[in-house]
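Lecture 7 notes: from sequence to structure.
We start with the chain below.
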Amino acid sequence: MDITTLLSPTRIACKPDVSSKKRAFEQLATMLAADQASLEAEAIFDALTNREKLGSTAIGNGVAIPHACMSIQQPCGALLLLEDGVKMDTPDKKPVQLFMAILVPANQAPDYSELITQLTSTLMQKSLIEQICCHHDTQTVLDHFLELFDPPKHPFVGAMAA
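Predicted structure tokens for the same chain:
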């Protein structure tokens, strides 16, 4: 599963007025539902919160990766950046400022584990989170995020040595 295809500018919100985990999940669900004709925001919210009840999706350093499997055709994601963060059950007790929500088709659950692992290992870098959270417009956030997960195209890759 390619992380770089999960986001679009319409599924990124920078610094909205969100003061709780519930409001953050509502915002994420609304953004995710905008591109899913077959799903309502309420169903997405329920799926994310039901998964959260199994254990916190906060990974530390101000990051949470709420996720759920649903009846959708393609995986999608939504990114929410908050000014001050919200209180969650985090390993380091820091407020969460970056929420990266992911929905995957129910039949792709194994691929989804690998995706979460890749996101977690990348987003655990404190300096990286600080850089992302400094952005105030969705396109800049998207560009930065894509750079993280889309390796640079080296002009000599695949070329034969002379």
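Points to note: Residues 154-162 have pLDDT under 50 and may be disordered. The CA atoms of residues 20 and 73 lie 30 Å apart.
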